[in-house]
Amino acid sequence: MSFIQTMRWYGPKDPVKLSHIRQAGATGVVTALHHIPNGEPWELQEIQKRNQEIQAAGLSWEVVESVPVHEDIKTRQGDFRKYIQSYQQSLRNLGKEGIKTVCYNFMPVLDWTRTDLDYGLPNGAKALRYDKLAMMAFDFFILKRESDGYPAEEIEKAKNYIESIDDAVKERLVKNIIAGLPGSEESYTVADFKNKLAAYQDVDATALRANIVEFLKEVVPVAEESGVNLAIHPDDPPFSLFGLPRVVSTAGDARHLFDQVTSPANGLTFCTGSFGVRADNDLPTMVKEFGSRIHFVHLRSTTRDTQGNFFEADHLAGDVDMYEVVKALLEEMSARKSHGKAGQHIPMRPDHGHQMMDDLEKITNPGYSGIGRLKGLAEIRGLEMGIKRALQLDA
Ligand code: DNO
Predict the structure, then answer these.
(1) Is 149 exposed, middle or buried (0-12, 13-18, 19+ CB in 10 A)?
(2) 301 burial level (CB within 10 Å; 0-12, 13-18, 19+)
(3) Ligand 1: distance of its center to the CA of 274 in Å?
(4) Could you confirm whether 83 is annotated as catalytic?
(5) CA-proximal residue: ligand 1, atom 12 (nearest)
(6) Residue 60 to residues 44, 223, 284, Cα–Cα distance (Å)
(7) What's the average model confidence in pLDDT over 65-78?
(8) Ligand 1, from 10, 63, 64, 65: best to mutate by most atoms within 8 Å of Cβ?
């Protein structure tokens, strides 16, 4: 296989065990030291302990997802210098332990965001969904933000929506949006969330872009020295939420980061589920453009509608042309091989999965139940083998 097949594991408390991941056919694990508070350095001993646990299960720790970037770094306020030093220290320690790929994101305040974690599919499985109207209703009527320019007729629709749901549904909506989906590392109440938004009053997209470039200039040289590749995760969803800037949403955004900091250690997590929400992101072309900068891959698809909503589709269905994406990635790996370059096997994980079968009765991490991801991995593995054989790709 050309990809290094991995699955995400949330650590010892994850109901999906390392043994399950191994049975699913993955050889690698993507994980993080979730117990270390955001902003503190990851000590070598802690990294080693976790690595040993993974190795004892017959797996290898391929990628860290994520070493979180503290909010102060994103806004360049408060203690940001201290947090950058911690970040550098974590990268050095990961490098010492031979963990070479670090995924992170630069989304202000909120990491990945959905409104509905139990969207019923016609076949009885459940998917994650983003509903624009529900977001707007939360923003305007629960958060009561001094909102920017929602059209009056949309506010009217959002009002009808909020009046149509009972308190329990409202509470769930709030929780889904701001209480932190797995891996987010941050969780807010409505009041906290408002305060966090206020920190961005003077940080618009231009400022955030400058801050990320500064951050990269500070951490990429350390990553390089430590033998680590950084792989930024795109914004999910790839557009502004609550007036917050998001600057890793398009091909142009990624290009800017790579132009500003040219080291190959400044790379990308190519997440088809995030970039794929925008019809103007041409994914196979992006793979070709960013080729050698792609250090990690998340494969997943979404189905969008004309209203700005989307749900998470089957891995091989939806709006993402998975055949063309996987083909482009295999061609990239094959080119690396023929040029004797590093990274001939890119770690890939099936991103998210539907909650299905027995998992419907279990408490699972939204998007990260075992069976749906097993299905995604199996489908992608089959697609990969078919493409390789048919095109006789030496990868
Ligand atoms: C969601 C994940 C994201 C991702 C971070 C990377 O399922 O893809 O939470 O881990 O954005 O830092």
Answers:
(1) exposed
(2) buried
(3) 10
(4) no
(5) 104
(6) 17, 20, 29
(7) 98
(8) 65
Give Rg (Cα) of the chain: 20
**C-alpha dist (Å) from residue 202 to 83, 207, 242:** 21, 8, 14
Joined tokens for residue 7: 């699955």
Question: Between β-strands 126-130 and 302-304, what pairing exists: parallel, antiparallel or unpaired?
Answer: unpaired
Pick from 234, 178, 182: which is nearest to 34 by CA?
182
Burial 51-74 (b: 16+ CB within 10 A, else e): bebbeebebbbbbbbbbbbbbbbb
pLDDT tens-digit readout, 3-57: 999 999 999 999 999 999 999 999 999 999 999 999 999 999 999 999 999 999 9
Which residue out of 70, 233, 315, 354 is catalytically annotated?
Answer: 233
At 130, list the tokens: 């983003």
Pocket of ligand 1 (CB under 6 A): 65-66, 103-105, 111-112, 183-184, 233, 298, 351, 367
CA of residue 27 relative to chain centroid, distance = 20
Catalytic residue among 20, 70, 298, 315: 298
Distance CA 35, CA 86 (A): 15
In tens, the pLDDT along 245-257 reads 999 999 999 999 9
State pTM to two decimals: 0.97
Amino acid at 70: H
**DSSP string of 156-184?**
HHHHHHHHHS-HHHHHHHHHHHHS--TT-
Q: How far apart are CA 285 and CA 267, in angstroms?
A: 17
Catalytic annotation on 321?
A: no
Which residue puts its alpha carbon closest to atom 1 of ligand 1?
112
| pLDDT band with cut points at 50, 70 and 90 for residue 325 | very high
